[in-house]
TrEMBL record:
UniProt-listed CDD domains: nitroreductase
GO MF, one example: oxidoreductase activity
Name the UniProt record assigns to this protein: NAD(P)H nitroreductase
SUPFAM superfamilies assigned to the protein according to its UniProt record, in alphabetical order: FMN-dependent nitroreductase-like
PANTHER family: NADPH NITROREDUCTASE (PTHR23026), NITROREDUCTASE (PTHR23026:SF117)
Ranges of residues in domain Nitroreductase: 9-61, 67-152
InterPro entries per UniProt: Nitroreductase (IPR029479), Nitroreductase-like (IPR000415), Nitroreductase/BluB (IPR050627)
UniProt xrefs under Pfam families: Nitroreductase
Length: 178
């Protein structure tokens, strides 16, 4: 990637992946990025579960009633969790880590998609975080925020166009200020 601005334009959610597996180097690079994510007071309340087992990926693809089925076709899913007892801003810290993983994936030419787990439900009505916790034996004290599906891009997406920027949502000095 040439620069950060270009990275932001080309990073688009990818829900289709090729069958190509990720290399160990790619997986390590994604984890390094996650572990370098900033956290409040450097609490590092997050923890990550790397899932490349096809059977587990299939199970994870049912973590929500809709918009999670593509996890089954991804070569890797990174489950982002955090301990609310370690940090009162665990949601923010885990969210930052989630997007850092996505930006690292894009920088390596890989595609990714954030699957929101917190405050979502499965098709049967079970809370999504409870479902993921059961599938992966996640300890009760950890909360599941998201699943980031990562893989080689299975489709082309146009870069974000700056002509679609919503400048009306930017305010100067006070709300409504220009």
């Amino acid at each position: 990637m040439e620069n950060f601005s270009e990275l932001l334009k080309v990073r688009r959610s990818m829900r289709k992946f090729t069958d190509e597996e990720l290399t160990q180097e790619q997986v390590v690079a994604l984890m390094k990025a996650a572990l370098m994510s900033p956290t409040s007071k450097r609490t590092n309340a997050w923890q990550f579960i790397m899932v490349d087992n096809k059977e587990l990926l299939e199970k994870l693809s049912h973590c929500k009633a809709q918009s999670s089925q593509f996890i089954a076709d991804a070569p890797l899913a990174i489950v982002v969790t955090a301990d609310p007892l370690a940090s009162d801003v665990w949601i923010e810290d885990a969210s930052i880590a989630s997007i850092i993983i996505q930006l690292q994936a894009e920088d390596m030419g890989l595609g990714s998609c954030w699957v929101q787990v917190r405050e979502r439900s499965t098709a049967t009505g079970m809370p999504s975080d409870e479902y993921v916790r059961e599938v992966l034996d996640i300890p009760l004290q950890l909360q599941v925020l998201s699943v980031i599906a990562v893989g080689h891009k299975g489709m082309e997406r146009k870069p974000f166009s700056e002509e679609h920027l919503q400048w009306e949502k930017v305010h100067i000095n006070k709300f409504g200020g220009k």
